[in-house]
Please model this.
Amino acid sequence: MKYRTANDLKDLLLEDHEKVVNRIPLEKLDVYLYLHTIYQDTYVPDDTLYQFIFRHFFRLDNPSLTKEFENYYFKLMEEQRGYERPNIVQITKSLYEVKNHKGNPTMQFPLAASMLHTLNPSFPTYDSDIVKAFDYSSTYHLSGFDKKMKRYIRQYQHTFKTYEELLEDEALEPLFSHFDERFPEYDLPKVKKLDLIVAQIGNNLQ
Model:
């Protein structure tokens, strides 16, 4: 399966980089900074405001998911505090075991990625905009946890490696410079800026 490469995305990014950056919603920066910063000094399972913002921003309040799932999710998020490199496969597997309203396990890899990205932006996001930007294929038709996970991990690793290539490409420096001009009061890691920009590319393609 051929996904968009660093060169493919580079062409899209440089096509009209100011327009792409200008369309990034300010809310995305505010929410990321809030969730990432507050996490350092809160106890997530008891912080209802933190949970409320996270749920709505990352669509954790999905009607198919139970309250038990939400509680377990934030408990799991708290547990990641002690790990330098959390294991996204194990996290996804743990979430998979929590049944939905119909009594079935559900594959919640995007939510696992959202959790880790909030804690550390070096873990890319994996939402519908990122999927569109990279032209990732769906896992919907695949049966069973292992087959779905294999596809997700292949795509996630591709995202990670692509980001590494793009971050080292000097041709993209005008893109990051414009980001800093557009959002002068926001001190974000460069990888977070790239994630926001790539997500906006995906959003523009829809």
User: Anything to note?
Assistant: The mean pLDDT is 93. Residues 6-205 form one domain.
